[in-house]
Amino acid sequence: MLGILRDLLRYNAEFRIGTVLVGFVLLLSVLSGFSPYPPQDVYVVPPDVPPSPAYWFGTTSRGQDVFWQLTFAIRNTLLFGCTVALISRILALVIGLVSGYKGGWIDRVLMSINDTFIVIPLLPILVLFYFVMRDSMSWLMLALIMACLGWAYDARLIRSVAMSLKNREFTQSSVFSGMSTREILVQEHLPYVMPIVFSTTMNNMIWSIGLEVTLAVLGFTDINTPTIGGMIYWANQHTAMVAGVWWWIAFPTIAVVMTFIGLFLLAVSMNEYIDPRSRLSRMGRVTS
Amino acid sequence: MTAAAISVATLQPDSAGPMLSVGNLRAYFRTDHFGVHRTVRAVDGISFDVRRGEIYGLAGESSSGKTTLVKTIAGAIKPPLEVVGGTAEFTFLPGYDGLHRAPAAELARIRWRHLSYIMQGSMNVLNPVRRLRHSFVDFARPHMAGTETEFEQAVIDHLARVNLDASVLTAYPHELSGGMRQRVTIALATICRPDFIIADEPTTALDVIVQKDVLGMIRGIQREIGSSVLFVTHDMGVHAYLTDRLGIMYAGRLIEEATTAEIFRAPLHPYTRHLIASLPRIGDDAPRKGLEGAPPNLADPPPGCRFHPRCPLAMEVCSRSVPAMIETAPGRRVACFAVNGTKQP
Amino acid sequence: MSALLDVQHVCKTFTRGGVFPSRRIHAVNDVSFRIEAEKPEIFTIIGESGSGKTTLARMILNIEPPTSGALLFDGIDLATVQSSADRMAFMHKVQPIFQNPFEAFNPLKRLDRYLFITRRRFLAAGDDADIDIAVDDALRRVGLSLKEVRHRYPHELSGGQLQRVAIARALLSNPRLIVADEPVSMVDASLRMSIVNLFKTLRDDLGISIVYVTHDLATAYYISDRIIVMQKGNVVESGEARAVLNAPQHPYSRQLRAAVLLPEVAAAAAPATTSS
After folding, report:
1. Which candidate, B216, C21, C40, C181, has a CA 20 to 30 Å from the CA of B134?
2. In whole angstroms, how far apart are CA A54 and each of A46, A49, A59, B100?
3. Which of C190, C199, C232 to mutate to test the interface with B (most CBs of B within 10 A)?
């Protein structure tokens, strides 16, 4: 594992830049543990102070230090994105692999469910959930709901890879070696499916964070837990852009853009590394 | 004069010289992934000539480098493949040391008119979404003068030579059988009466019965037009049936070259002898043995003669020096210390 | 005499065209033959592409079910082999060799893994040392050794060696029948005979019967005991191998025999007689 990381850092510029960006963002989130102010408190510092040596990123109209708010916001947003990505990957993998390998009526049933989930319009459903569950809509709840809505597209991708793998002769060799279906899927097929899982994970994180920011900006989430979207929501409530308090919006936006670009670069460079064809040519097989 | 001497005499190159002259050609694959450098010496110092009007067979098994050699001669060089040295020159395109160095305009001039290809998969050549007539128009029309009607008639006449009806022109490739498609490919490759045809495993994917037909057609057209053919296949039976002279490749080098009859009757190089002896024949119950060991990894080939780890006649010098291709008899070359003695030319 | 493999009037039809099938392809049409249990033999199925030989092989391996007819292995109808225990019992006795040695194993995984798993799943467990010995034995039978193969990836071996590893893997379950679908067509000519000779050894020394599916008449002549010739799903000729191949009766078999290219230059067709 370490060897892989070292190789990537040494030879791949995209990975280096991605690591720097994501590293910075992670550092910010870790710093949230050292914040002198509890995240929910307001009017703890003088409001509307521009970035200065005392307050690095300035302060908000609600009397909060933008820097320390940002550490909490980016931490919560990242956690949110990771949770959604993790749960939806597991769903997509299980459903995609089983459906592709088994075929027959299992495939048809699972894919019908899959297609239903693909056509569900996300934003109206999420808004509906918010209105129904208003008070109990914590970000964990939201993460679960989004995970259940976000697996369908990628399950189909994984299924098509699984179907092509089923027809390759080494699958039959594994069957005749006495391996069970679960073993074949996990040990033989998963390495081929991982590049897709990786790139869709980053995609999924970017999508879920983006959607969360959208909902928060519109006020449809728990706005007391600080998130990036939440910060922008409050900034809009206080008409920050018009009032000239640009730092309230700028820094959260920069942070989330850095996150997106960093994740994207990591995904692309890792993808190239673990792609079976590139692995094979590194192992020594000349692919024509 | 004996029969053997007569056949050698008719193969003397005429005054115009060989059609294709390959001189000490070296082409390597160089890959560099995440710090892992690999140089695969796929073609490592090959020299041979293809004369006018002859069918020259190139035999070799997997990792012999024959596919890379053909690609290099045809100019289809793309990284990670690089030509590291040597020449592969056709008489109709002199001065560039090989197609890979020639400018695009020159290549367009010679393609199909002087040099054409018969590939393994007919679907590599025929556009699956257009009727066959379009393939002829695309490939051959630019090189053939005359009106549309004259062209059409020439195509129909030519198709008759491969026993195909004019109706195939209005068909799509998938509507024909594999054998018929391959015959169309042959017709396409020969309609402009090229000087040189490169045939790369053209019958490997075909059924045995169709294969014999198609080979007969290739020979028939070749005799009529007088083209030179470089015929590449691993199937020794096909070489025996079709080719005039035969070059045997092993691990990126040419190790024996002679008339096909000579190679099958009395092979000299230990590899060739084992290969010919191991081929089973119907009606012959004698036990046969395969070769021991495996072909070498071209990224890390054995030093000296590349066959020496598997050779029953290996001597001490074989692991140190590379045997040169020496002409042991007129028209016969072998690269082996056991056959030629250890003197270098 | 009880039958090891009894193929009874087996047919396989593929339909193309969704709910209302427009085309029926009769891949296999009323094929029957028996391989006796007491007498191990090499039974060859000869055919060109489209003859149905691969479909027949897949049905014998229970990968595809027949449309009609029955296949009985050791008296058990393959249609009744459903549960995973039944299937394991079947695979214990019947193993495949596939055409493409480079695809027979996952290119991303090590080779020895398949050997160890096969041994563990089909035979009573033993400790690691026992399993190592058993795997080494199987590899030695095919002319390799555990030392050469341990920790290797498929691309590090030649086609001939890979096919031998595949045969070793098949041997590790102690099968009674091996179904080999074009096992040497993608192996170099110089390495082919060692594998073909290996099949003979398996029959003679281990008493394993082999169903050898191929289009190559020369290797078929060399090792087969009995032979059937298939054309477009039908058996056109069958009988003792040498007899059929030396003197075929059916027009199609005659055509096949005549089309075989001998590895020698016929004097009559001396090519270099026309001037260039």
Report:
1. B216
2. 11, 10, 10, 67
3. C190
